[in-house]
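[SOLVED] Need 3D model of a two-part complex

Original post:
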Amino acid sequence: MDIDKSTLLEMYRRMVRIREFELTATDLFKRGQVKGAIHTYLGQEASGVGICMALRKDDLIAGTHRSHGHNIAKGANPKKMFAEILGKETGYCKGRGGSMHIAAFETGSLGALAVVGAGIPIAVGAALGFKMQGQKRVAVPFTGDAGSNTGNWHEGVNMASSWDLPVVFALENNHYGVSTNIKYTTKIEDLSIRAQSYGIPGVRVDGFDVIAVYEAAVDAVERARSGKGPTLLVTESYRLDGHYAGEPQVYRTKEEVEEYWKKDPIPRFRKHLMSNNIASENDLDGIEKEIKKEMVEAVKFAKESPQPDPDTAFDYIYA
Amino acid sequence: MGKIEKDATSLGTLKPTMSSDLIVQVKKGEPAQELSYQEAIREALREEMIRDEKVFLLGEDIAKHGGAFGVTRTLFDQFGPERVRNTPISENTIAGAATGAALVGMRPVAEIMFVDFSGLAMDQICNQAAKLRFMTGGQCKVPWVLRMAQGGGAGKSTAAQHSQSLEVWYAQIPGLKVVMPSTPYDAKGLMKAAIRDDNPVIYLEQKFLYPFRGLVPDKDYIVPLSKCDIKRTGSDVTVVASGYMVWHAMKAAQQFESEGISVEVVDVCTISPLDEETIGSSASKTGRVVLVAEACRSYGPTGEWGMLVMERAFEYLQAPVVRVTGRNSPVPFADSIENGVWPDTEDVVKAIEKVMSY
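Solution:
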């Protein structure tokens, strides 16, 4: 597949933006400035970016508790994201959602649902809505490996496949449901074969390789958009951080994590861009510098923003 | 329903024999037709589907079969398989898909065959649909209706997993609206209001009321959500009831007429958000209150209603509030014990006597 330079550079920019966002958010969290918990997407940048770059703005994603990366991959603004995780009125959800529910409807979202698997039926319904209204749009619910063991997942995939709905089921295998490695809870190792029992294509790609993910996503999205029905897209990835930032990770070895850091998708993509003369080291350094500056400004914006007015505490319960 | 009799074999069962003069909701001379409760729901669905092409139905066996109780029968023939959509047996995904479709501009009316099965969909109803608008800071809205049949089919013997009254499960969740019509008129008007509302609305159909008949206006009308309806005006005692229990209340009220005791019946046709004003004002006016609900006694609707009477009308009360409720029991199968778990007209009569004689 021939991917144009500007798309490739935008992929790089978004991957770096996710990385810097997560590192900055973790730093804020460790300094006690973020309440609640944050679940970072470190290591999975290529998966979200490869998939979301294959989508149009009016295609919709359903996120999870771990969706900082999905939002940025779909084009969300880090200013409004930091404002949200700091509980500010200027955040995407006006401080009502926080880290686990960040959802930027302006860039194409169905919400971020923090009950594992919950986005699946919702995305299936959105796809049904697209089809019934004759819209050539696609819905993409994200789940992890563990989410593919929920009833939500199996019910949803079954319904979408039996009705040929325009859905791409993004299954990001980061190998862990909280503390439990998928190998202890699931007999099969290749999760893409789950597609077979629903009569749809199941595709498995290297989730550290943004180009491989993008190419597979383009095919799956095209299939959905042209009315041929859903695809299960499994990206083999890894959660480099704990379940949440600061989580002690007693269930896995440091060596295991270090092995996966060697697969870090960002240096890998950087090398690809340079060795194929798509960008120079200077160009890429420039992007990183620009993103780091963007983060400083975004955090400043968030910190200076007001919290919601207590008089508005009960707004948005009913429409 | 002119004749409501006590069935000799089943304690206190109301018999839906014909159209009722107990509850009249259509003005004299107004063009109207007599419909059953079941038909009234169907006509509301039909008219809304004609009015708005975004309205569609999904649920198990609702197409040609017309649903477990025949409510959607004939709609499949009129609107076809796209808009009257049979689903897999996937309650959670029926509710979740309704939410997704609503988020992109559709107005789904989903059906879960029995409220008893809705435990399977609890997450999608209570954690997702109810909270999405709130937790996204108002970025979206979820305009759907979820129809579920509930309550006793007295004499129908459907036992413990097909007979419950579970309105309080959903009334506990801010973001949801919960309605429970008691008459054909209300069934049609509340369904139209629910479909046109921009929030997720739980619509609880009373199984025993499906065959009950009543006059329904020919014109387009709605029964507003979040309002109680005073089914009968009175001055001596207030009976607060919902669903099937409204009929026991009305029948009991009629019995007291000859004794010169004037009974007001407040129908809580929207369970949540609760119209506290109407219940509070009626209690303040009469000073005597009886509460009637089919659901299990403990933590049931009457606890909530009674507490709000304390908050709003305590200084006017002339007698302790009395409640008549379902028993804290799973619903049994055999007739002889099934009817024992639900209140009947006689129970309401005794409760009224109790508050009047205090």
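Edit: The radius of gyration of chain B is 20 Å.
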